[in-house]
Specification:
Elements: H1 3-23, E1 25-35, E2 38-48, H2 52-62, H3 64-67, H4 82-91
Antiparallel strand pairs: 1-2
Length: about 100
């Protein structure tokens, strides 16, 4: 199997695991317990709750136009600041805005 094909399969498995974790999933825990009658296997069924971090990661990467954290909008010079911007432009045109 080539590295690309293996990577694709691994990527898919990670995507599926992330989605399951984002939505919550049932898990089975198995442990060994010692009783007065000897050792026995104890199996417990649990429900892992949805994970908010996994949900955020999924949404930011799958629907970035709706969920990305947007950087602040660049500020336009204000009228009262315009004179200062023009002075700076006269001193160093490369350093303005």
């Amino acid at each position: 199997m080539s590295a690309g094909a293996q990577g694709t399969g691994c990527d898919r498995r990670v995507e599926e695991a992330l989605l399951r974790r984002a939505l919550g999933l049932p898990v089975t825990e198995t442990r060994r317990a010692t009783t007065d009658k000897g050792e026995k296997t104890v199996t417990t069924e649990k429900e892992l709750p949805p994970d908010i971090t996994a949900q955020m990661f999924w949404l930011k990467n799958r629907r970035p136009e709706q969920w990305r954290e947007k950087p602040p909008e660049p500020r336009e010079p204000q009228e009262d600041n315009l004179l200062e911007v023009l002075r700076q432009a006269a001193l160093d045109p490369e350093d303005v805005l």
